[in-house]
Write a structure and sequence with these properties.
Layout (H helix, E strand, L loop, with lengths): L1 H5 L3 H6 L10 H45 L1 E7 L20 E10 L2 E10 L7 E6 L12 H52 L1
Organism: Rhodococcus navarretei
Keywords: Membrane, Transmembrane, Transmembrane helix
Protein name: Transmembrane protein
């Protein structure tokens, strides 16, 4: 009677070894096993994430070393009044919240270059600001710093673990939802069978 009510059979009972609750169904055991594997994989991902973080650190450190020899800081001098519309403060040479791109000139290795450099809005002609240029003297992005390298490696390690955790936990929750539906359906069917017998 109990075997029919709980949906267990001889092989199912063997699978339930170590589970003292006689009302456990096969789907309960499978769900517990999936949870166990998800937990194990999350633990295993910790050293893997650390390895990814170390790899990211090595790559970014190499990039930093390359930039040290190819990106140089020079001083640019504006040749116009900074009165145009504000631009992003992350543009070349920007130092304030309200920055403006203005025509400027700078000298690198004895050669004069011109371009638009960001300075604070309202800056007069002749304002100087540090900028970064490549080996050709053209404007370049700010090179990486040691803090950037550390931040990238930490993000790589934590980000990879969080991504894997999101996928694994999401898959587990999806499977648990499916098992919950299956479990409810089995209980409804077995209870209906029991009531018909009485």
């Amino acid at each position: 009677m109990r075997r029919k009510l709980t949906g267990q059979h001889r092989s199912g009972r063997a699978d339930l070894a170590g589970y003292p609750n006689p009302l456990l169904r096969d789907c309960d055991v499978r769900q517990a096993r999936i949870k166990h594997w998800v937990t194990t994989l999350l633990i295993v991902m910790i050293p893997v994430s650390l390895w990814i973080g170390l790899g990211t650190h090595a790559d970014q450190q190499q990039r930093l070393e390359n930039q040290r020899g190819s990106i140089h800081q020079v001083t640019a001098t504006t040749t116009d009044i900074a009165e145009v519309a504000p631009v992003s403060s992350t543009e070349f040479g920007a130092s304030g919240a309200a920055a403006t791109a203005v025509d400027s000139r700078w000298v690198y290795r004895g050669v004069e270059h011109t371009g638009r450099v960001s300075v604070d809005t309202g800056s007069p002609v002749g304002t100087t600001t540090p900028i970064w240029v490549d080996d050709s003297g053209d404007l370049s992005v700010r090179p990486l710093t040691s803090s950037d390298v550390v931040a990238a490696s930490i993000f790589g390690a934590i980000g990879s673990w969080v991504l894997m955790a999101t996928l694994l936990v999401g898959a587990y929750l999806l499977m648990r939802f499916r098992y919950d539906l299956r479990r409810d359906a089995e209980w409804d069917r077995d209870i209906a069978d029991l009531l018909r017998q009485h």
